What does this fold into?
Amino acid sequence: MNDTAIFAGGCFWCMVKPFDSQPGILKVVSGFTGGHVPNPTYQQVSTGTTGHTEAVEITFDPEVISYEELVAIYWQQTDPTDAFGQFADRGDSYRPVIFYNSEEQKAIAEKSKAQLQASGRFDRPIVTKIEPAEPFYPAEDYHQDFYKKNAAHYNAYSEGSGRAGFIRQNWA
It folds into this structure.
C-alpha cells in the first residue's frame, strides 16, 4: 500500500528533483499546505496572506523506500537552522516544515530531528517545524516538474538562490 509524505523546504521547484529520482517514488507534486484559504493559487500564496507554505507531496512505496529515508533526503535539501524561509526565499510561505500524516511519521521525524541536532553538524539549533498534515493543494501545472520543463531556469535559480552552494558545503 502506497503512502504519502509532505515536506516544505523553501521553493517547491527545488524540492522535487531530489525525491523524483529515487526508487520507490511514484509521484512528486508541487503545491501548498498549512494555510486557511482553500484551493489557493500561486499568486494568492505569494502575497503571504493565505497562511500556506510551498511544499511537495510525495507518493511512495514504503516497501521500496522508507519514510525514514525520505526524511534523511529532506534534511539534505534544506538549511534546518533557518525558520524564516530558505536561502533567497523569505517568509512564511517558504518556511521549512515536515508535515506528518501519522503518529509513526511524527515519531520518525522527531527522532531524525533530534539526531541531526545531536550530530553537531550545525552550530545553531535545528528549527524545522514538525506539524500535522493539513489539506494539500497542487500548484498550477506550470509549476509541476519545473526542473524538467525549464532546466536552465531551474539550475540558475538553484545556484543563484544559494541553495546549491549550501548543500555542497553542508551536506556533501
The radius of gyration is 15 Å. Strands lie at 3-8, 25-33, 53-60, 85-86, 89-90, 97-100, 129-132, 136-138. Helices lie at 13-20, 42-45, 67-75, 103-119, 146-149, 151-160, 163-171. The chain is about 35% helix and 20% strand.
